């Protein structure tokens, strides 16, 4: 995929998430894999309103999340974790948003959020009668620390990671696949929060 093509897709998806209230301020970031040998990702640029991105508001990064070549915009500070997730999971797209439900669920379940016997698990890629534990890792400003914590608890069957007091990462074959998974996971976490008490 070309960088400008990826930029158009990232801008359109970002606008949808912003409209959902999941990318408030300039928070959150999305990425799509451009190539695998070597690994290259297109990541939304840092510090911009995600509801108003242009296709050019994108940065190409390497497997460390560092920009390749001279590019005018800075990549998201969290590009390093996107690259780590794409490398370890083989995903084609990684989405990270600051939705509230995952953060509340992690606050109540710092050892992992259990989801069980729920129809919406199918939209997350798991059978409705399965038991899924969504990993929770402590927040950090160091992407290597976050990446190590992600990899330590990585389960190939569970395409999500919640960062406590921060937000959620979900990945899939492409941006639409990742969004469908995230939409269903967010519903599942809202349900869990409501059942456990409070919204
Ligand atoms: Zn974030």
UniProtKB/TrEMBL annotation:
Free-text remark on how the cofactor is bound: Binds 1 zinc ion per subunit.
Domain Class II aldolase/adducin N-terminal: 8-193
Pathway(s) where this gene product acts: Amino-acid biosynthesis; L-methionine biosynthesis via salvage pathway; L-methionine from S-methyl-5-thio-alpha-D-ribose 1-phosphate: step 2/6
Keyword NAD attached: no
Superkingdom of the source species: Bacteria
Annotated Zn(2+) binding sites: 96, 98
Alphabetical list of Gene3D superfamilies matching this protein: Class II aldolase/adducin N-terminal domain (3.40.225.10)
EC number(s) on file: 4.2.1.109
InterPro entries with a match to the protein in the record: Aldolase_II/adducin_N (IPR001303), Aldolase_II/adducin_N_sf (IPR036409), MethylthioRu-1-P_deHdtase_MtnB (IPR017714)
Reported cofactor(s): Zn(2+)
Pfam family, one: Aldolase_II
Molecular function via GO: methylthioribulose 1-phosphate dehydratase activity; zinc ion binding
Function: Catalyzes the dehydration of methylthioribulose-1-phosphate (MTRu-1-P) into 2,3-diketo-5-methylthiopentyl-1-phosphate (DK-MTP-1-P).
Family named by the database record: Belongs to the aldolase class II family. MtnB subfamily.
UniProt-recorded name of the protein: Methylthioribulose-1-phosphate dehydratase
Source organism: Actinokineospora bangkokensis
The organism's taxonomic lineage, starting at the top: Bacteria, Bacillati, Actinomycetota, Actinomycetes, Pseudonocardiales
């Amino acid at each position: 995929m070309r960088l400008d093509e990826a930029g158009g897709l990232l801008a359109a998806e970002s606008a949808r998430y912003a409209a959902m209230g999941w990318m408030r301020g300039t928070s959150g970031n999305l990425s799509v894999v451009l190539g695998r040998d070597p690994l290259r990702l297109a990541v939304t640029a840092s510090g911009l309103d995600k509801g108003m991105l242009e296709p050019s508001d994108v940065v190409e990064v390497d497997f460390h999340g560092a920009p390749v070549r001279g590019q005018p915009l800075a990549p998201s500070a969290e590009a390093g974790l996107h690259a780590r997730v794409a490398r370890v999971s083989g995903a084609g797209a990684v989405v990270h948003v600051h939705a509230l439900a995952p953060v509340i669920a992690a606050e109540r379940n710092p050892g992992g959020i259990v989801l069980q016997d729920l129809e919406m698990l199918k939209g997350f890629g798991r059978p409705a009668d399965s038991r899924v534990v969504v990993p929770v890792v402590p927040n950090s400003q160091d992407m290597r620390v976050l990446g190590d914590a992600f990899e330590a608890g990585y389960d190939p069957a569970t395409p999500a990671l919640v960062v406590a007091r921060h937000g959620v990462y979900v990945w899939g074959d492409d941006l639409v696949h990742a969004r469908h998974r995230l939409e269903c996971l967010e519903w599942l976490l809202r349900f869990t929060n409501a059942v456990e008490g409070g919204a």
